[in-house]
Structures are given as C-alpha cells and as structure tokens.
Amino acid sequence: MKYQLTFILVALFSLLQAQKNISVQISHVVDGADNPFVENTTYSSANNGTFSFDRFEYYLCNFKIIHDGGQELTVSNLYALINASKGNGAIDLGSYNVTDIEGIDFNVGVDSATNHLDPASYASDHPLAPQNPSMHWGWASGYRFIALEGLYDSDNNGSLDATTEYHAVGDQYFSPVNLILSSQAISENSNDVTLYIQFDLNQLLMNVQQGEQMHGSSPEISQMMDNIVNLPVFSADTTSLTSTVIGTPSVDQVWTIMPNPTTDILVVDYTSLDLGTKASLVLTDALGRVMLDKRINNQATSTHLDLEDYPNGYYYLSVHTDGIVLDTKKIQIQH
C-alpha cells in the first residue's frame, strides 16, 4: 500500500510538472509587421484605397491545439472577443499536458449552435453577453463575427470624407483558420507558453470594395470572409519575439510588475521604458476583453493598479506607447 501511494504521488507530480499554461498573443498589422494597426490612423494601399478604423472587433472560438506529432487538443467552450482597436489580442487557452506545440486551429465567428442563443442568458462578463457597442445583430442573424467601422476616401482625392462599416453577420461566415507554428512563433518560459499570431488587415480587405455600409451577405462581406480562408489574414507571427516595434522591448527597456501573483495592489515600474508622448497600461482578461485602460505619466517612473475588485485568474498587462503595444506580461490575481 505504501508503494502504491508513492507511485500515485510520483505520477501525479509528473503530470502536474508536464502541464503547460498556453496563451495566444495576436498582433494586428496593416500590410506587414512593420506597420502595426493603430485606431484612427490613416492607411493607404493600392488594393484597399485610403481608410482608418476606430472600431475593429471580432470573435474567435473552436480552438484546437496541434501538438506532439499532429495530435489535436480541443479547447471547449471558449469564446474570445478581440478588440484590436484597443490593442488587445491576448487569449488564455488553459493548462494542458503537452510537450511540443506544432500549430493551432480556430474559427472566426460564433458556431451556429451558439450564434442564435439569447445574449442576456450569459453573465455580464462573458464575451457573448451584451456589449457596448453591440456585437449582436438580432435573434435571426446572431452575432457580428467581425465589426469594422471608420472612415474612407469616397472620391479618391486622398482625404477621408465618408463613414464606412463592415459587419460580417450570418452562420455561413463561420470561417476556419489552420496555422502551423514554427519555433520562431512560440515562446516558452518555464510552464508558460505563448503562441504568437499576426492578423493583417490589408489581407482581410483584399479585393473588397469600399463603401458606406457593408452588412450581412453583401458581396463585400462575402469577399472579406473568403479572404480569411484563402489569404494569410492570420499567420504565424515570427517577428514579435525579436522585434522592438511590437511585443518585445530592447534589453535597455525593462519594466517590472510586483507582486505577481497579486491580491490587490500591483506596482508597475517603467523607469527604463521609452514611453513616447502618449502611454497607457491596458489590462485584458483571459478572453481578451479590456478590463482597465490607464493613462500613465511619461515623466514618472512607476504607478500602481488597484486590482482588489477583480476576480481571481490570469490577466495580461500591456504597455501601449503612441498606439503601439510595446510589451505584454501575464499576471495572476489570487485573493
């Protein structure tokens, strides 16, 4: 009996040791990693004309982690609402017993079995609960899978003179994404693994005609959602681990958070960061929702965040400077 108990404890310990906390970090760009997406910024391209967006939101679900020789691990009941206009793209997939991660699959949108349920049936902090601005189109059509809103150049004179909306609505637009991830797109620190993905807005809008209101099953929306399947709208992000533009500060730009895990007050020291003219700290939860957006004084060296009223769990704290996500750290709130 003694040896059986010892064996069970050793096996349990080995299993816990193999568990990895897996998260996804999505960076949003316009025509390549050198051009990060920033809300209310004007972009021009030969394919998509001139445009800017102040709303850029979308749903992801149906996640599968591909690992250890092509095995598929399904992440059940996880829906993520990504608000790219606020700079967040972090998703906590959970803890799993895997060794080598080779890829990730997911869908853009909300599956048909869930798409027509009542948003009011969810807890207020759930991604499928009522949002402001709304991500739900109505009982029959369901959720907006993608919501893009902003301005465009209607007469091709180089100025933004008309409003534009792209709202992808309908079960037919539930779009699969299958990504192979090289080691350059995966970071591993102890038991924490981050998968880096890039979303290219220029690819999303490739061959999509500009206009004021593109909704539902319009040809423009159909082309946009076809692009998700057929073009590299989503791709493995192999630059964030080495670039100082998105994701990783240079060695002389170090910021610290303590304590981590925290019960209430989190002290953020950014003495060595170059914060530019406009800087903020953005806290998102495990489903990618913005929980806090705090402007920070670029003349100061530190600040503190009061997290006492936030539920236990993992969160992501990002430093934003002049519209660019400089770096992101994973924190744990544990009351």
Overview of this protein structure:
The protein is mainly beta and about 325 residues long. A hairpin with a 2-residue loop joins strand 12 and strand 13. It is globular. About 5% of the residues have low confidence. The strands form 4 sheets. Strands 2, 3, 4, 5, 7, 8, 9, 10, 11 and 14 form a 10-stranded mixed beta sheet that branches. Strands 1, 6, 12, 13 and 15 form a 5-stranded mixed beta sheet that branches. It has 2 domains: about 210 residues, no CATH class; about 80 residues, Immunoglobulin-like (Sandwich), CATH 2.60.40.10.
List the helices and strands and how they pair.
Layout: H1 2-18, E1 19-29, E2 43-45, E3 49-67, E4 71-74, E5 80-83, E6 90-97, E7 101-108, H2 112-115, E8 136-138, E9 142-152, E10 162-169, E11 175-180, E12 186-189, E13 192-200, H3 201-204, E14 213-215, H4 219-230, E15 234-236, E16 256-258, E17 265-269, E18 279-285, E19 290-296, E20 302-306, E21 313-321, E22 324-333
Parallel strand pairs: 1-13, 10-14
Antiparallel strand pairs: 1-6, 2-3, 3-4, 3-5, 3-7, 3-9, 7-11, 8-9, 9-10, 12-13, 13-15, 16-17, 17-20, 18-19, 18-21, 21-22
